[in-house]
Amino acid sequence: MLPDPETHTIVPGPTSVDDLRELIESDAVNDAALVLDRMSEDERSIAVTGLPTEAAADLIEHLVEEQAAEILEQLAPNVAALILEELTSDVRADLIAELATDSASQILDVMSPEEAEETKELSRYDPESAGGLMVTELLAFESSTTVQGVFDDLTTNSDLYRDIDVQYSFVVENDRLVGVLPMRDLFLAKRSTPLREMMIKDPIAVRDDTDMDTLEDVFDNHHFLGIPVVNPAGELVGVVQRTAMEHALAAHDRSDYLKSQGIIGGEEIRSLPVAERARRRLSWLSVNILLNIVAASVIAMFQDTLSSVIALAVFLPIISDMSGCSGNQAVAVSMRELSLGLIRPSELLRVWGKEISVGTINGICLGLLVGMAAFLWKGDPMLGFVVGSALCLNTMVAVSIGGMVPLLMKRFGFDPAIASGPILTTITDMFGFFLVLSMASVLLV
Amino acid sequence: MLPDPETHTIVPGPTSVDDLRELIESDAVNDAALVLDRMSEDERSIAVTGLPTEAAADLIEHLVEEQAAEILEQLAPNVAALILEELTSDVRADLIAELATDSASQILDVMSPEEAEETKELSRYDPESAGGLMVTELLAFESSTTVQGVFDDLTTNSDLYRDIDVQYSFVVENDRLVGVLPMRDLFLAKRSTPLREMMIKDPIAVRDDTDMDTLEDVFDNHHFLGIPVVNPAGELVGVVQRTAMEHALAAHDRSDYLKSQGIIGGEEIRSLPVAERARRRLSWLSVNILLNIVAASVIAMFQDTLSSVIALAVFLPIISDMSGCSGNQAVAVSMRELSLGLIRPSELLRVWGKEISVGTINGICLGLLVGMAAFLWKGDPMLGFVVGSALCLNTMVAVSIGGMVPLLMKRFGFDPAIASGPILTTITDMFGFFLVLSMASVLLV
């Protein structure tokens, strides 16, 4: 049994390498990662260097990729290489890809030539492709091997295979994948049977350049825990585990959330240097402030209207905020339906139809609410009408744009997570300000 | 090999049950789910009833839970029961929990008594606990069983075990979990060895009420693909697969994203009825509009100031929007660090320290930008100073609140995903409007 969860909750404080090792070896690697996060840069590399290689690798694997890369860059290349060699091929390749070019090549230089070559090859794959997600650690046998031959190999190399998932083994002929073999079938087979006679022929496999969406479809449509990956020549090059794909999908979604909130790149941890964090956030904010100024310039064009009906100034931020809220609901649902595969980027009309019906109902309700508030405050029914109907109309505009923009972004190759919000709010701000102020200039002045 | 991805992209249109079945049987279940999504309520239940039970179950499993439950409620109870019996225990229990009470009991009534009892028990677990995530389909043997006995059982019941992951089998004594056995060890063992002599004793296990965060820690700290679940009496009741936990975590994160954008409940699909979607979205919008009116009332208190410096009206929405942007960046990073376990809810001071430094830099940059724009527009350096310094100060307030509110929400048991945004924008709006207008009333009027 596990210890009580409470005992896992440590309060980070000054810690020696020994404490860190103890945490890792008592299976509290996440706590160790937290302790490391709170150290200074120098302390981190001293601590990681002082750990046994296996513990250091375990720890590195539990860090956010960016932080892991930062630490590896500060280590002596041979120490970093030893740690990397303990990791699975996909994690190793991802980290090498994350490193600065010169650090990466220094570390690859001290790795064994084959491992360096393999790592370099793997790190060239798009991290969100089958090649980028696969591990090369797998069991493969020639089709002429007998069941007894497999057993012998398993016995001889059991140490080597300790960390490999052996739900399936793969059957090859001259490196080309020709079959797959659920390991449990071996229990029931005669020892002299060659694998070619008992394997599942023409197994489901994916090309190494298959993208994550397609891969997700394949895993959705089959109950496999792993899918073999072949290169264009049909040679078996690795296997994607279902957990690796689930993990990558979750990371992708989380990064979409961060991007939608203005964290460019989809990742920030607070132990990064202040200047770096400020710079990244500012790159997003400065685009937004320019868009904001553009939108607000609509107000500037109606200064005379505003001077005569100063109460309107109270309602401008409300219209801007509420249209943003309504529009962002529609953005979120579109993002979700895109990721679930429930809409295609081309189905603009369907989305618009579904949004405008909701937007009309909600626009009327919100418009009535704000219009009533304006009327009660100033006793002017026309002020209530102008403000209320402007919010009503702008809600309908906001849900339409909010629903459709993610589809358009995706269709034209932009990142919907990062671009949808600013586009939405700029358009709805401009339109909302224009609506209320132009109506006011006709009806209230 | 898989067919070309393009052939998977069908355009939904009028479809017969046969077409639907063909899609499911040719491993395009996601496409089938999309086709079903586009049908009317009545068409859906006719289509699902017309499918072979296994195909219907496959399809139901690929739907959003809410939609699956809606369809099951419309089916004849015996048809629904047959479909549910094809699903794994955890999916079945989740769906039963999602159904309206009377539909659920009608369906349970026609299931076999044992299966109904088990499903009822499972559906009582919190879906985000070990009990809610586990499956009861597993291999368990008494500790006195020999390797030969296991082989015999596997051979006899191979049909029954077809859909079970058999990476491990579990060893029990009077239902109590006493050991675990990697299946591959069976290859290498003598047939007469009893399991108790070769099993791994005192295996890692979790209690059925273990929450998802703790479960995630356990999976992070070990490389297991599955973890056995025991009840308070130490009896083996199920196994949580790593994929199930990854899946639930991803769903949780996605639902957090939707909640943060104002989709109450964390889920909406556009095939739900318009009135229902409008009602849900409106429940969030109406809270926000009240908060907005409260915040804007600050502007109302400064109408005289506004009348004399009408240009200020242009900058109020900019200050409101930009403070929201800066604050939401901090909210997103806090949400992410909370979910990664990189901060504890009690570490307010650390978060504030990290945020205020970034907020000061960004506040100065944004303030300078807006101040300069105001100065260039009106040629009034004091207007620039008032607007710029108000935005600068309010940015610092926004990141502080944005960073800390999710921690406070979590600490006091509220859902940080749904509450953080409105709290943030209400406070920063009020403070921002007050800052710029009170400074203006002193320096500009």
Automatic annotation (TrEMBL), chains A, B:
Its main location: membrane. InterPro entries: CBS_dom, CBS_dom_sf, Mg_transptr_MgtE_intracell_dom, MgtE_N_sf, MgtE_transporter, SLC41_membr_dom, SLC41_membr_dom_sf. It is found in: Cell membrane; Membrane. One of its GO terms (molecular function) is metal ion binding. One of its GO terms (cellular component) is plasma membrane. Keywords: CBS domain, Cell membrane, Magnesium, Membrane, Metal-binding, Transmembrane, Transmembrane helix, Transport. Residues 199-257 form the CBS domain. Pfam families: CBS, MgtE, MgtE_N. The chain crosses the membrane at residues 282-303, 356-377, 383-409, 421-444. It is a multi-pass membrane protein. It comes from the Bacteria. NCBIfam families: mgtE. Belongs to the SLC41A transporter family. Acts as a magnesium transporter. Homodimer. This is Magnesium transporter MgtE. It comes from Novipirellula artificiosorum.
